Amino acid sequence: MTGMITDTATVFSRELRPTLRQPFTIVISMVQPLVFLALFAPLLPGTDSLRWFVPGIVVMSCLFAASMTGSNLLFEMQTGSHERMLVTPLRRPALLIGRALKEIVPMVAQAALIVVVCLPFGYRLDVGGALLGLVVLAGFCVGIGALSYTLALASKHQEWLFWTVQQTVLFPILLLAGVLLPLDGGPGWLRALSAWNPLRYVVAAERALFTGDVWASSTIKGLLAAVIVGTLGLLIGVRAMRRSA
Amino acid sequence: MIETRGLTKHFKNVRAVDGIDLTVARGELVALLGPNGAGKSTTLRMLTTLIPPTAGTASVAGFDVVRRQRDVRLRIGYIGQGNGAGHSQRGRDELISQGRAYGMNVRDARRRAAELIDSLDLAEVADRTVATLSGGQRRRLDIAMGLIHSPALLFLDEPSTGLDPQNRANLQEHILRLRAEHGTTIVLTTHYLDEADSMAERVIVVDHGRIIADDTPARLKAEHVGDTIRFGFDTEDEAEKAAIVLSGRGVAYGKELRIRTEGGPRQAPGMLEDLRSAGVPAASVEVTRPTLDDVFLQLTGRSLREVGA
Asked: CATH class for domain B2-216?
């Protein structure tokens, strides 16, 4: 277990280092969700819209980031550094988790920034609940990151495949989760579809947790969805890694 | 160090590696020589746990490559065809994280990285982004990465491909020094004939996924080809007469008589003597030793240069 943690830390810090050496890229990545927030939130009805919208946008940024996990890999598979890492004794799940966390952690900074920006507009959150929410979200995103990694392995010789699949899959998942717009008013078939979307439960859990409602049933469901996606993603990712190369 | 039995790899319906039995003892320096697609790299990728064999077994550094992957990985170094260091990373950072990957603590990884940077002449570029390094510098960095944990067994896949002659010589020197200093067992693949010739004590010729010859370069040449002695004459007539004098041991091509034999340099003076006393003195003489390409040609009917490497 400690070995797995050390390995994950090794992969994570290796991945994050080039980003940290160029803080400018982090600043740029911070701007995007703020723009989104500024232009989208005013369209939502009701005074409570921030409470509904802020957790949604945090989830969205993390999902986008995690789904990009494989994109770095595409390049590293061509140059040979991925192969080099596969020959090291690094534990295989650590390769997946470390890379996914590298995408997610900057998002935590982003989430904090969003929250701070919303404070003057009357937004309040429960810090403990929100931290718990981030852990649940990280579990979910590790799974998404591992799947993105798998997709990159599968797209080894055709890079376009990665981007096509990533884009094609990402948006339905996002729209069917009620991240940007509430699903309540949607037609029955839409709601039926969204019942199968794990992200929907994660978003609902985040909304409950950000307000401090730790024991809500939606929290439990969201946690369950995150654990399932996380575990499944890792299983599929490790298997793909053993079979590829 | 390495022991394989019937090692085989099929990709869809291509037999990339077709039943290789290979034994490599501790301290050997072995070159796998063959054209592109002969199965050298695939063999190496199985031995380094990158891909599982379709059939057969392989034990590397004492452990089975399928069942004990982690034990194998801990004990081997691998320098692949590509660049092991990430292009957006700095060399020193990559060396340190490579050390961490092999279980070193941060301080040991730093110290070992500094050591290797020093011994591979990377001091000036170690703190620059890998993408800005020259091909030769990157290759040296790759070697440093492969050596971070001082493995007893090192695999190199086409180590000098794409390097200019000077960098190739430099690299070969590093590899040879490594072996002299640490007794590292080294297995490399190459399609450079001179590289296999000058570096390895043992050359394994691979073609169509099989081992077709396995010996020292000198013995491969002596056994499969031998030397060529060329006598030059002023006229074609003389060349033909000379062929008769030497009782059909050679064939006349125009004004030249060619003889294939073992120990050419020892035999040539005697033949010159015979020719002179028979009244057909040679105007010139040249003894050429065979190259490994001649060996490959003899074994497969194709030249390694033609097949393209």
From this structure: alpha beta
